[in-house]
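Repro:
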Amino acid sequence: MDIKIKKYENKFYIGDDINDPLAEITFFFSDDKTITIDHTYVSDALKGKGIASQLLDKVVEYARNETYKIVPLCSFAVKKLKESDKYRDVLK
């Protein structure tokens, strides 16, 4: 299965319907240089395939490219971003 991650405003998502994605990670700007990740969702059809991690990596890539810092709020993002040193440069 070819997974295409798309970006729309303050989210990265998978699926054809932006309002009903198969998976998504959403964020908002808490200031002009800080992204706060507030929600991660993966449908049952995609669970267990590492999709949430792929979505998180897209947000991290976006943050690095734009020199933003990340504040994780949702439990998945908190756990993943704090368990690995590879994200240390983007954590606020």
